[in-house]
Amino acid sequence: MKIGIVAANGKAGQLITKEAINRGLDVTAIVRNKNKTVAEKSIIKDLFDLTSEDLKPFDVIIDAFGEVREDKLHLHQDSVHHLNKLLSNTDTRLIIIGGAGSLYVDDKLETQLYNTPDFPESYKPLSIAQGKVLDDLRKRNDIRWTFVSPAAEFIEDGERTGTYILAGEKFTLNDNGESKISYADFAIAMVDEAVKGDHIQERISVLSK
């Protein structure tokens, strides 16, 4: 299996790259500048300069791109739109790191977490931007996409426990009433999805046990 990881130099991207390589997968880091990952192969190119030929060799593209600056949040939609254009009507799967804010809190899947009273206002613009990406994906049947939402508390330097809970569209808590996951355990879930491909054109979510 050949996997390309977009924005592999980021914290999440580096851990996903390492996890995939440790499992013996053929991994290429797709980065804008010098490759800082453990991957021996790389494509050094801005995401928006990627072409369909660049992505043609891969079975799976993992999109680890992220942007938190409020005036740049549109890049979430713009970047996925570009990747969609390149991967349209191909067999290559696209797995995207989403956010927790767009998860639903009700059984009817009508109210999203970022619309609940206690949701921090400072995180709302980012959650809305990531939610728009998911809305766009749901309208397409020409892309083999999977949108993966981490838990509400996404811990950059958290430990790798080697386990996680796989959930779906609903905001889920573990037995301790927590919604959290480390970047390292999230990387396991991302590579599991890349290998198994069990959730094509679906949103899934993951949290720690």
UniProtKB/TrEMBL annotation:
InterPro entries according to UniProt: NAD(P)-bd_dom, Polyketide_Oxido-like
Matching CDD domains: BVR-B_like_SDR_a (cd05244)
Residue ranges occupied by any NAD(P)-binding domain in the UniProt entry: 8-193
Name of this protein: NAD(P)-dependent oxidoreductase
Biological source species: Mammaliicoccus lentus
Organism classification: Bacteria, Bacillati, Bacillota, Bacilli, Bacillales
